[in-house]
Design a protein that fits this description.
By secondary structure, the chain is of the alpha/beta class. The chain contains 21 helices and 14 strands. Helix 14 crosses helix 15.
């Protein structure tokens, strides 16, 4: 959870409350980009975490982001959906000072040393060292706008406020302007998500903000040296192929950084563990199955590669598997809810809407997803249990016996069919379930082995009409 999503803390009582007190305390003014640079350098030197919660970018994306911040560049992140672009952008606020002073009542959060608007300049001249000072927490110094076709210049930059004109102010008075999101985020970080979706005439309004740091509103040209870091996100196809970002705006971003999906299965699994809100226990081997499954779907030629497979797919899949285990525990009065490989079958139908297929695969969506799930399960089985003697499991059905399992078969019932199996202890050790697993964990391990043996053609498998699974010779 980012700081922006929590309640804003109360400023410490010992902070200066007037301009005179601020100067006496030795406070020095720094721009937003100077703050980010200095605080990032402090973390680099101390070895402290720079971007907590960002997985899989340590050697690729984050060094580029750090170089951009140290250079003082505005930046644009390019990547498909679900690559953590917004989370990374929001994480930048942690590199700001925890508290920063502003003139009390300032619409643009102006620094007491550098008032910008005519009203604040007059107030500073009238009050001198008694100019009242308030304090902004870093979580208040972040602004964000999702670019939509209906976004207007007024939303981003500002517009003439007819109420202020009606109150008697002259139309040429700068104080008749109602400022938009960008100037209101002065002395902070402003993010534009999905920048290509902004109409071109709206993109033009950002040109001066990025380069000259002034704004223009209906003929007014206000020399307001805005102090902010502007960050944008975009899909690479929109950004590079369709030409929906005007060239002068591209040119004004100092850094263009490509994001990506996790490069390794371990990183995909780590991301799932970090983000998934699980309602039941999901053993590590099942998390690995889902991580491999996500990667298989992402790389499948049957899937539209331009749309990408979001990390949310893996997270939602794991949460669905946990929910299936919880449902079984409720229906069968199990003491604990532990996911098993049979629970993964529900993923293929419930998450079909998260995948965009090529037009030639119409009608085969569930079939394709089920096939990829089997591949992921087999890969995990080989990766986890390769080299183990699993003959004890195949001998269970050597005499024509049938092992019945499925998403509604309780763990105790499955274990009763199995009894003592030679080699089970080594399986539990390889799967990280320990020497004394619970019945649910043991059942999860056994069912994983049975499914793996089936996928490697050492056991037969049959699905019944009532949803049960039968393993035999």
């Amino acid at each position: 959870m980012t700081e922006a999503s929590t309640l804003v803390p109360t400023p410490p009582t010992d902070l200066p409350r007037t301009l005179g007190e601020l100067r006496a305390a030795g406070h020095e003014f720094r721009t937003v980009k100077e703050e980010l640079r200095d605080n990032l350098l402090d973390r680099l030197r101390s070895g402290a975490p720079r971007f907590p919660g960002i997985v899989g970018y340590d050697e690729t994306v984050l060094p580029e982001v750090e170089r951009a911040l140290l250079a003082g560049h505005d930046l644009v992140l390019l990547g498909e959906r679900g690559q953590g672009k917004t989370r990374l952008i929001r994480g930048l606020i942690d590199l700001l000072d925890e508290w920063t002073p502003c003139i009390t009542g300032s619409e643009l959060r102006e620094h007491p040393y550098q008032p910008l608007t005519p009203a604040m300049r007059r107030l500073a001249e009238e009050t001198g060292d008694l100019l009242p000072v308030s304090w902004l927490h870093r979580s208040e110094r972040y602004g964000e706008k999702l670019a939509t076709p209906d976004t207007s210049v007024g939303d981003l930059i500002g517009d003439v406020d007819p109420i202020k004109v009606a109150e008697g102010r002259a139309l040429g008075d700068p104080e008749t302007i109602h400022f938009g999101l960008v100037p209101r985020t002065n002395r902070g970080i402003f993010a534009v998500n999905e920048l290509p979706d902004l109409a071109e005439r709206i993109q033009v309004s950002l040109l001066n903000v990025l380069e000259e740091r002034d704004i223009q509103v209906r003929g007014y040209q206000l020399r307001l040296p805005l102090d902010l870091l502007l960050v944008a996100s975009a899909n690479p196809e929109d950004y590079t192929n369709r030409g929906r970002i005007i060239t002068p705006l591209k040119d004004r971003f100092g850094a263009e950084i490509r994001t990506h999906y996790p490069l390794e299965v371990e990183l995909e699994s780590e991301l799932i563990r970090q983000e998934a809100a699980l309602s039941a226990s999901v053993p590590e081997h099942l998390i690995e199955v889902i991580a491999r499954y996500t990667r298989a779907v992402r790389e499948s030629p049957a899937v539209d590669q331009r749309s990408g497979i979001s990390a949310r797919f893996a997270i939602a899949a794991t949460e669905t598997v946990a929910a299936s285990a919880l449902r079984r525990s409720g229906l069968r009065n199990e003491r604990e809810a532990v996911a098993r490989i049979c629970d993964t079958a529900s993923v293929t139908s419930t998450l079909r809407g998260k995948v965009e297929f090529d037009s030639g695969e119409e009608g085969r969506e569930v079939e394709v997803l089920a096939h990829l799930l089997r591949l992921a399960t087999a890969e995990t089985f080989r990766a986890r249990l390769a080299g183990l003697d699993l003959s004890g499991f195949t001998e269970l059905v050597a005499e024509g016996a049938i092992i019945e399992t499925g998403d509604l078969v309780p763990a105790e019932e499955l274990l009763a069919q199995i009894g003592t199996v030679p080699g089970l202890a080594k399986v539990l050790d390889r799967l990280g379930l320990g020497d004394a697993p619970s019945p649910g964990q043991a059942a999860s391990a056994i069912e994983f082995v049975l499914e793996g043996l089936h996928l490697t053609r050492r056991l037969a498998k049959e699905l019944t009409d009532d949803g049960r699974t039968l393993y035999g010779s």
